[in-house]
Known about the structure:
This protein is an alpha/beta fold. Helices cover 27% and strands 24% of the residues. Strands 9-8-7-10-6-11-12-13-14-15 form a ten-stranded mixed beta sheet, with helices on both faces. Strand 8 (144-146) and strand 9 (149-151) form a beta hairpin. It starts with a helix and ends with a strand.
Amino acid sequence: MKIAQLVSGFDNLSLERGGEVEITGIAYHSGRVEPGNLFVAVKGFRTDGHLYVEEALRRGAAGVVVEEMSLLPPHVPPGVAVVRTADSRMALALLSDRIWGHPSGKLKLVGVTGTNGKTTTTHLVEAAVARAGKVPGIIGTVSYRVAGRELPVERTTPESADLQRILATMVEEGCQMASMEVSSHALALRRVDGCEFAVAAFTNLSQDHLDFHSDMENYYRAKERLFLPVERGGLGAGAAVINIDDSYGRRLVDAAAGRVLTFGRGEHAELRGELLEANLKSSLVSIN
């Protein structure tokens, strides 16, 4: 794909030169760059990807994405494309989604967020999909699984370039639905930007990760992005399943872009659950 086509339509990307350059893939780690790749220089917590542009070029990068032209090394070969962006993390997510052919739009993607219960919920979804005779995929803390095949787990929600590659693999291998844990870090760091969520689920919100988010309001705002309409900076999930026993869940009901289905133990929930039996091997729950 020519880089001019790759960046077309994105307001936050400016093609500075090399519009006819062919791009064969995308990378954010200079050590993993292959000839023909587009290298996105991401500013991280421990280091800055702009420091590794030169290494990426030595490894054959056909183009680079930077936040400031002044951060480029002094002698970039004339045949290398250069793209400028205000937000390299967003650029990495959106460009990765386009390079891999928007895989989330080719299956039903369920995103689950909340302090607790994400792993359990995603595995319940995977089991239900399999029981219905469909082919599931799963991405989360415990496992990345594609049609029953295990992949190495790096973090709860993969970096955007890795996430889009995994989703594309799911599509290639016949997955019809995928359940994914969506962490607050992933939402704040735009790892899931570009994803098309058929359903978003909210489990709960309690004090955690405040070293990253600084306070509960910022923590909530990160989670809220999964549900908000696109025009308000969200991901615009098509439908939302929300726990309204949680006070933050009750806030989300009004914020969500799509149809909302509420659940909880209280009388106002549309789906109410009651624990009938529990032991070390199983739980029996009544839902009505």
